[in-house]
Amino acid sequence: MNLSYQKRFSLLEAHNFRCIYCKEYIRFKDLEIDHIIPKYLLLKPIEHQKIIKDYGLDENFDIEDYINLLPAHDWCNRTKKRLVFDKGAALYYINIARSTAQKAREIERRILNSLSSDKWLLKIGSAIENNIISKEDLNNLMKHFDSTEKDRYEPIVVSFSINLYHNENQFEDLSSVQVYDFLEKELMNYLNSIIDGKFYYTESSYRNGEVISVRLAFAQLDFEKLEKFSLRNWEIMEVNYYSEIYSDYS
Q1: Is residue 250 a part of any domain in this protein?
Q2: Whose CA is closest to 205, among 215, 190, 196?
Q3: Gyration radius from the chain CA atoms
Q4: pLDDT tens across 210-242, in order?
Q5: Which 3 state secondary structure label does DSSP give 168?
Q6: Are the C-beta atoms of residues 227 and 5 closer than 8 Å to each other?
Q7: Is 126 found in the same domain as 46?
């Protein structure tokens, strides 16, 4: 089973968007999740249990937990893949994973809380309409919320990109501007069809004759919906918090 978008994003942010091996920045598009103790060992229970015992790990050590997961570029992880680290190397990387596991869990919890907020707004609105609570009661309740909780509602910025080389034969009769406009409109229409929440441009799209890059901010991004993204030749290049990209967020 593949890890969810929110879990992958949480792991990546917990490690400051850096590859565990080369230490360079990772774009979301290039992210691979490395299982320190390889996942395929779950299909080999005898070998799996031997490694767990020999390495001194808890018998309930969860291969899919953050303590066994690290972010890597796909090309950095390519040479490792099914390799089983020796005990010293494995414990070294597991200790790194353990040091960020709690932070990753908190980020994931923040994302999940954000996803559920829309449902609560609907319930609160219904309660006001039916005189179950008054607006004054609601205002008094809101005063008790800690202002530090605001970051859980910070917009998520997603960068999309398309290589025009893959589409050049399709638009032979159109000008470059018409092609750009058509492809961007196609992206907007598609996102509206799979994502319920609002989104907006954070800056003008980048067009250089070879690629189009579009950055959009999502107020309440449902990562499960984003996981369904599949639009011909368009790719998700980056997923990040607004404040990580733009300094004007407060």
Answers
A1: no
A2: 215
A3: 22
A4: 889 999 998 878 887 888 888 888 999 888 888
A5: coil
A6: yes
A7: no
Distance CA 173, CA 82 (A): 49
In angstroms, the CA 199 to CA 175 distance is 28
Q: Are residues 133 and 168 in the same domain?
A: no
The count of other CB atoms within 10 Å of the CB of residue 107 is 21
Of 209, 206, 197, nearest to 237 (Cα)? 206
In the DSSP assignment, the letter for residue 26 is: -
The CATH number assigned to the domain holding 201 equals 3.30.70
Report pLDDT digits (tens) over 153-175.
678 899 999 988 765 556 565 57
Domain total in the chain: 3
Q: What are 18's two structure tokens?
A: 């850096």
**DSSP letter string over 112-149?**
HHHHHHHHHHHHHHHHHHTTSS-HHHHHHHHTTS-GGG
Write the burial class of residue 249 (CB in 10 Å: 0-12 exposed, 13-18 middle, 19+ buried).
Answer: middle
Signed CA dihedral, 76, 77, 82, 88: sign only: positive
Does the pTM surpass 0.85? The reply is no
Q: DSSP letter string over 188-202? A: HHHHHHH--S-EEES
Q: Which of 209, 244, 216 is nearest to 107 (CA)?
A: 244
